[in-house]
Amino acid sequence: xxxxxxxxxxxxxxxxxxxxxxxxxxxxxxxxxxxxxxxxxxxxxxxxxxxxxxxxxxxxxxxxxxxxxxxxxxxxxxxxxxxxxxxxxxxxxxxxxxxxxxxxxxxxxxxxxxxxxxxxxxxxxxxxxxxxxxxxxxxxxxxxxxxxxxxxxxxxxxxxxxxxxxxxxxxxxxxxxxxxxxxxxxxxxxxxxxxxxxxxxxxxxxxxxxxxxxxxxxxxxxxxxxxxxxxxxxxxxxxxxxxxxxxxxxxxxxxxxxxxxxxxxxxxxxxxxxxxxxxxxxxxxxxxxxxxxxxxxxxxxxxxxxxxxxxxxxxxxxxxxxxxxxxxxxxxxxxxxxxxxxxxxxxxxxxxxxxxxxxxxxxxxxxxxxxxxxxxxxxxxxxxxxxxxxxxxxxxxxxxxxxxxxxxxx
Length: 410
Ligand SMILES: *[C@@H]1O[C@H](CO)[C@@H](O)[C@H](O)[C@H]1NC(C)=O
Ligand SMILES: *[C@@H]1O[C@H](CO)[C@@H](O)[C@H](O)[C@H]1NC(C)=O
Fold this sequence. Notes:
Strand order of the largest sheet: 3-2-1-4-5-6-7
Helix content: 55-70%
Shape: flat
Number of domains: 2
Order of helices and strands: HHHEHEHEHEHEHEHHHHEHHH
Largest sheet: 7 strands, parallel
Radius of gyration: 28 Å
Bound molecules: 2-acetamido-2-deoxy-beta-D-glucopyranose
Distance between the termini: 86 Å
Mean pLDDT: 85
Structural class: alpha/beta
């Protein structure tokens, strides 16, 4: 027991606090805390090094005191009380299903005045909202890619609001038209994603901004980690979300003087919208096979294209159906006195961003490839090539043998 001296215990306390601080930051999963996390980890290493010098107890006690000061200084204070929901009007796009429908219901329950846009006013989602929500909720038919429908929604919203401003816009509507290698994604898929996720959201945001500025309100946008990180097979969707992220981040600066707060929510994979609609993806797949040039199908192979589709479907079917973390985050972004610029909603997203931001490219790349797409097949041409190489070497061996035999014959 002689080994367990006072300095050892003090050292252990300091280390525990640093490791605890780091763990707390990891568990909180906020990107904004990632630099603090790095500082914590750095300090941990520093303390560990200092220990090697076997510092005297007095010095270590000073260090412990200092640590306590830093710890209490960086600790977040008691959660400030949220703003009241009552009397606040919120406009949400894409409420036919998924996050939009769930958010519309929750916000209505909380007392917000909800303007929920749907693609189909007679659809299942719209009818459910009508049935379950209070008369405060207004349903609007809007395809966000149709500027005249967006304009009409503005007029309808103004008619209800009168002279009041709009507290918040929740940009939720979005699509993922296709899933597959970029070379196999049709131009129409790239344009389709851009049209909804980028241009649609852009037009809605610009249209409602005067009302949002008037209320010194908020813009909350549901984006995707695929807009920041190169997920395999999501080039079309990811590129449109990347454009959206940059637009929203720019708005964040520009609207600060107006008092409009801008937040982006980055959710984990959830079962929403078309993602678990088997028939929809089969239809998309058939269309894709028909639209691709025979040369491309030949190079990649139909079995390869089929495998991609099946991987995506199994991925989608395993996604979490409980969207509560995302809805909680939307509420937080709406009512927190100090909304964050970026929110990570759902398990693992914070960790994913941490790896992407602070680990070497090779590691984050490996993480994306191994975790997201576990392809077994290579494109057909590449398989043929390695088979061809094999044949060639066998053939060469045979040739060599023949030559040898010929030589023997001579
Ligand atoms: C929305 O898009 C349409 C068509 O491009 C355009 O005429 C309209 O001005 C846009 N709205 C805003 C507010 O910019
Ligand atoms: C690929 O899928 C299509 C459509 O689902 C099917 O008709 C075809 O037989 C499949 N091809 C291969 C090689 O598995």
